[in-house]
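Usage

Read records sequentially. Each one opens with the input sequence:
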Amino acid sequence: MEYSPLYLAYLHYFNTERDYFECHEVLEELWLEEGRNLLYQGLLQVAVALYHFRNGNRNGARKMFTQAIDKLRKYPPDSLGIDLGQLLSESEKYREKLENIDQEPFEFYDLTISIVDPALKEKVADWAINPQPLHEED
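and closes with the structure output:
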């Protein structure tokens, strides 16, 4: 499978840089290019949920996790070269914890997207060392 440089960038920013704002930026562009694919939108919303919670916006995080979960549930657990089932499960746990945060406070923590396709894992690692242009003019 051929993966867009935008998707490689998303996975790098999500798993390595933990830059959820940049995750949103690159995946939103891919989402638009791919005809508003709901799988990309769900992945984008997980990053936005983490971004919101890291910045103290509990309600925004809860809302984004809910929307992401609703979309991601519709796809096989091994979509796009990642363990989507694991990400879905961890997102559901995060949302549940956010719903009970007043009774059981917890600190922000990162999620990691497990890459199951060895070729994708290699491409993300290569992208980190030698980023490909994300836009035609780059």
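Summary fields computed downstream for this record:
- The helical segments are 5-17, 20-33, 38-54, 58-72, 84-99, 118-129.
- The mean pLDDT is 94.
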